[in-house]
User: Fold these one by one.
Assistant:
Number 1:
Amino acid sequence: MRDMLFINGQWTAPAARGRFEVCDPATGEVFAQAPLGTAADIDQAVAAARRAFDKGPWPRLSGHERARYLRAIADRILADKDRLGLIEVRDNGKPLPEAVWDMEDAAGCFAFYAGLTEEMDGDQGEIIPLQDARFQSKVVREPIGVAGAIIPWNYPLLMAAWKVAPALAAGCTMVLKPSELTPLTALELAAICEEVGLPEGVLNVVPGFGSDAGQRLAQHPDVDKLAFTGSVPTGSRIMQMAAADIKNISLELGGKSPFVVFADSDIEKAVEWIMFGIFWNQGQVCSATSRVLVEESLYPRLMERLVAEAAKIRIGNGMEDGVKLGPLISETQHAKILGMIEKGVAAGATVVHGGRRPAGLDAGYFLEPTILTDMDDDNLVWREEIFGPVVCVRPFKDEAEAIRLANDSPFGLAAAVMSDDLDRCERIARAFRAGIVWINCSQPTFTEAPWGGYKKSGIGRELGRWGLANYLETKQITTFNHRERWGWYIT
Ligand code: NAP
Ligand code: MG
């Protein structure tokens, strides 16, 4: 395991010489030590990224040259996906096939942005038509500068890729702080960058605690842009910290996404997508469709099928064959979610399935797939993000009620609808107040398409060309036709 920080292309001991424990959520046991970066290390890393941006080759390379590095990174992730996947399983707990899938997605993200950075080479700037024909205005895009990235633990390498790949494609340099709960694959990414010969200081990786390293990165005056994925309270603090320097920020925050299922849906398809929408990655997915609304006439039959299928899910260590539900990330999350279920029940909710630690899995942070019903609009399990394998299901009478209930949330990340009537699906898709909508499915995510939320779910969009734009400044260059006279003072 790697026990140094990656700063300025060098493996560097943390300034305070500290380490922190990395735990396997399937056993609760410590299996590695990670280097503990503190504010002093963030200062070193930002200084390295600043030098690399101001004086180094990276922002001055052509898109085609940058793309060569990005493709090399993609190739190495792909070639090493099984080993990296195993690290991710131990660090995060997710089932191995999901972890390997994440590695493929992360590689795909680097390859996609390699393509976009190549396209930038042909970009001669956009000529803007002006009312006054004596002037010509051209718009060009330039890298924003030094970017900071603060990411969560639910998709450790993939969330890093969503930020590192577009930032590097744009010509920015970056300091990445992974979550203290899952620092390992970010350090592997640093090692890959070293192997492919990425110029020094272009990517710096500093694991550490949010309250120290994270806070320093968010407050650092030399960081031009901060990209954050995590919870709403931390996102709000990041915004306040960034305000001091008018730092450009993008925020990908939490959600409580609805899934509206009409009675004309195929019940088997509905059950499977509902399950994928909430049990995949143990429900620790920002876009999880955790509020399911089912048309009244389908509700009893659907509940019966959902409970029957949820009961069949194999729970266990993500390393074991056939496991579809691993442990939650930490003891804290486990206790928090059990507490939320308890409070939800006290406020009137009924546990239809699960709600407990599975029998026989006494170590680790396991929770049964959980199905709740009978909650009022203001029950906390219906309103608040649980971030676990807990789905709340309610019946609805008609389309109008479904839309009202779906949109009655402070969040607006994602939403899903299922019906055989595609006109109705399109109508509902337009009515949702959410940045991502799925029709007849839930969760599939594509590197090419924009990702981000309405309302408290965030600001800005990642992925696709929107993700690249996060790391670009817009410059307009206006030229006056020198054959003309201005004639204001001298006529
Ligand atoms: P979190 O507590 O907000 O942490 C996210 C990151 O912020 C971690 O690296 C954390 O470091 C750091 N951090 C914490 N306090 C900080 C501070 N004061 N200053 C700077 N950085 C700080 O969230 P989490 O519990 O790890 O992740 C779960 C949340 O992320 C959920 O709400 C989920 O919905 C959201 N999420 C959203 C998306 C999306 O795309 N919208 C994707 C994934 C997750 P430490 O690890 O050291 O605390
Ligand atoms: Mg945390």
Note: The chain has two domains: 5-253+457-477, 258-439.
Number 2:
Amino acid sequence: MNNQSAAVKSYNFSLKDRNLLTWLDYSQEEVKELLSLAKWLKKNPTSDILKGKTLGMIFEKSSTRTRVSFEAGMLQLGGHAIYLNSRDIQIGRGESIADTAKVLSSYIDAIMIRTFEHEKIQELSEHASVPVINGLCDMYHPCQALADVLTIFELKGMVKGLKVVYIGDGNNVAHSFMILCAMMGMEVVVSCPKGYEPNEEVVKKSKAIADKYGGSVVVEHDPVQAVKGADIVYTDVWASMGQEEEAKERMKVFMPYQVNDELLQYASKKVKFLHCLPAHREEEVTASVIDGPDSVVFQQAENRLHVQKAILQSVLV
Ligand code: CP
Ligand code: NVA
């Protein structure tokens, strides 16, 4: 049996013609299937299952991991990816999202987009006749969260009941991490300064998901309280892409939320540190933590490739 038929045989699971805008549209069962596929692809990295398929990748923000893992992932599965920087395509000169969606759908098989407003991705998916994947927007970063959960599975085996703590800004990475960990039945704590909490609607929906799957979601302003007994501590930059002008002000507000050795003393002795990267050492995390023995950030970054391939295979086959 060649790699391609093995992949098809092993996974009679498909999200074909579906979009991945946020994990709110998915169930625990579907996510577990995707994670199994990602694990399988990590061991069986190449095939020609996506032969003849093309992914278009629209970027309105910078990227290292998302761009390269999607592009390399398509290649490893026999397909092809086209990098579309918004500055170089007509979107950057005002062509509508709807027209872009219709035209691209007639050339390619799926679209990945990294942008600002979530509504723009929704509009793109409404007008595209091919699957649309959210490669990060101001509200969500679903592909990142799948890699995060795969990493936690690899480190801890069972994830139900695990205490995972996100410290920092309550935006895109925090939202997707909260939703997906709640869906896996984990005990999720998000710790952020007042005024930087996660979106209320997303918290409400995450709590409902946690109730369904036996987990919990708590927003806790005190970082020491939040970290007590944590199995996983996760942080992200204090000023996200598009917020560069607020960086100075945010530095002051977020400093008490820095992940450093002192704070990690309150966590479990077996705590592992996660960061989506890119990181700013001595801001949201000290070098001693991110470059220390409890850090798993490069395993987590590598897993972006494996989950990207699972997502691509699931929406395209
Ligand atoms: N974590 C992440 O999405 O990294 P990039 O911005 O480099 O894609
Ligand atoms: N919150 C960060 C994540 C980068 C991967 C940002 O949006 O810039």
Note: The beta strands are 54-59, 80-85, 110-114, 132-134, 163-167, 187-191, 216-219, 232-235, 272-275.
